[in-house]
Write a structure and sequence with these properties.
single chain; 264 residues; alpha/beta; TIM Barrel; eight-stranded parallel barrel; 10 helices; binds SN-glycerol-3-phosphate; binds calcium ion; GP_PDE_dom; phosphoric diester hydrolase activity; PLC-like_Pdiesterase_TIM-brl; Glycerophosphodiester phosphodiesterase
Length: 264
């Protein structure tokens, strides 16, 4: 495929979870050094209302702690090691922050201080469980960092993503100019005809859905929307989404995707 006019954005899923412990600052910084256009991050709430970058409800898989994230305070989570479970730990002295819990505030501090252009995809988990609190605190945090009313030349551009239309509605109500992505594992009503809920400009289907429903992305694009696809780690999946001219590739393996794109 030779097409110099087309190159999708590459997002490091959970910071590039293949090589380094997911959702650690070291992983995110390395993904940027590798040339990723953006970063994907899941956020959930601690018991005392802090937004932390942890994918699972439970601590068990990605730390030496046990139990639900939502039942711990930030101070308790800060005592845990979030890197030692991963085979890539510790991999590189250059990226030492591979063990510490990452909060959204720490991630925003790091990307805004870097001065680099960074597209940050923040996925809220789980709106039904926390009521409106995750989105409320997220918008407040974005306001603190001056990211809740984005301008085209701002170096850090935040997009909020969710599988829940309800979360997108809350973001639209509180920060109407922050772009949103409607994530999907199946095709919700209306989306097959290109309709996205609550002002979402981008659809975010999983790659398995793209393979199972080849007409989906053309319909969404025909309606004027963009497409970001997750989690694209294998060559066959990458070829599939590139053939569909997706706008963004969300991957655990940003270096692999970037190298592949460079060879086209
Ligand atoms: O980028 C979307 C993707 O992250 C959704 O799946 O389970 O990895 O959060 P998950
Ligand atoms: Ca996610």
């Amino acid at each position: 495929m030779k097409n110099r006019d087309y190159r999708p954005l590459v997002f490091a899923h959970r910071g590039g979870a293949d090589a380094l412990p997911e959702h650690t600052l070291g992983a995110y910084l390395r993904a940027l050094d590798e040339g990723a256009d953006g970063l994907e991050c899941d956020v959930r709430l601690t018991r005392d209302g802090h937004l932390v970058c942890v994918h699972d409800r439970r601590l068990n898989r990605t730390s030496n702690g046990r139990g639900l994230v939502s039942t711990k305070t930030l101070a308790e989570l800060d005592t845990l090691n979030f890197g030692s479970w991963h085979p890539g730990y510790p991999v590189d002295e250059e990226f030492p922050d591979l063990a510490r819990l990452l909060t959204l505030e720490r991630l925003l501090d790091a990307v805004t201080a870097s001065g680099r252009p960074v597209r940050l995809l923040i996925e809220t988990k789980h709106p039904s469980r926390y009521g409106a609190e995750v989105e409320r605190r997220l918008v407040r945090m974005l306001q603190r960092f001056g990211l809740a009313d984005p301008k085209p030349d701002d170096p850090v551009q935040v997009t909020v993503m969710s599988f829940a239309a309800l979360a997108l509605r809350r973001i639209r109500a509180q920060a109407p100019t922050v772009p949103t992505v409607y994530l999907m594992e199946f095709v919700p009503p209306g989306v097959g005809r290109g309709r996205l809920p609550f002002g979402a400009r981008t659809a975010g289907p999983g790659v398995d859905l793209v393979r199972a429903r080849p007409a989906l992305l053309p319909a969404i694009r025909a309606a004027g929307h963009r497409t970001y696809v997750w989690t694209v780690n294998e060559p066959a999946d990458l070829e599939l989404v590139l053939a569909q001219r997706v706008d963004g590739v969300i991957t655990d393996r940003p270096r692999f995707v970037l190298d592949y794109l460079d060879r086209l």
